[in-house]
Design goal:
The chain is an all-alpha fold. Among the domains are: 70-122, no CATH class; 130-172. It contains 7 helices and 2 strands, in the order H-H-E-H-H-H-E-H-H. The protein has a two-stranded parallel ribbon with strand order 1-2. It is globular and about 50 Å long. The protein starts with a helix and ends with a helix. 10% of the residues are buried.
């Protein structure tokens, strides 16, 4: 099942839960403005490891160091991330803001999402990154598992093969 279908089924109250991120607030609002739902972490399967959910990466803006408009771009980004603009964007877009000072403008569902950010993890926050092709293989493999097209064991073997191949390339 693709995510859009899963979102529609949940928004139409045909599913008891959905695995989604904070962007779903706008999605569900568009599909069913009266949908009453809350946010929760998935259940723990072990106390041996911390419960972390993939997410929390957000978006990034970059300014080309060689741009003739570098100063203007930085000025614009400072303006965009100022309290007034972020508060406006929260109210109009139902997205998590770039700054914490907008918390009072958040609808309850986004407050709940923001409280769970401490339980999120993302490669951008790690000290060590995996090789890009290995990450891609893993991400596609997880999708295949969710879709019922591959087993976790098959994905693990595929990721291992890609990892070994990529490491061999680096050593040559």
């Amino acid at each position: 099942m693709v995510n859009k279908t899963a979102e529609q089924i949940f928004a139409n109250e045909k599913a008891v839960f959905a695995f989604n991120g904070s962007w779903c607030v706008n999605v569900y609002k568009g599909m069913n403005p009266d949908l009453d739902y809350g946010i929760m972490l998935p259940p723990r399967i072990s106390n041996r490891f911390p419960l972390l959910v993939w997410g929390g990466a957000g978006s990034s803006f970059m300014v080309n160091a060689h741009s003739p408009y570098r100063e203007e771009a930085v000025k614009f980004l400072k303006w965009l991330t100022a309290l007034e603009q972020q508060s406006y964007l929260v109210r109009k877009t139902n997205n998590l803001p770039a700054i914490k000072e907008c918390r009072e403008d958040l609808p309850q569902v986004l407050v709940d999402f923001s409280r769970l950010l401490e339980k999120s993890t993302h490669p951008n926050s790690w000290d060590v990154w995996e090789l890009p092709l290995v990450n891609e293989t893993l991400a596609r493999g997880i999708q295949a598992i969710v879709l019922g097209k591959k087993t976790p064991q098959a994905v693990a073997q595929e990721v291992q093969r890609v990892k070994e191949r990529e490491l061999a390339k680096k050593s040559n």
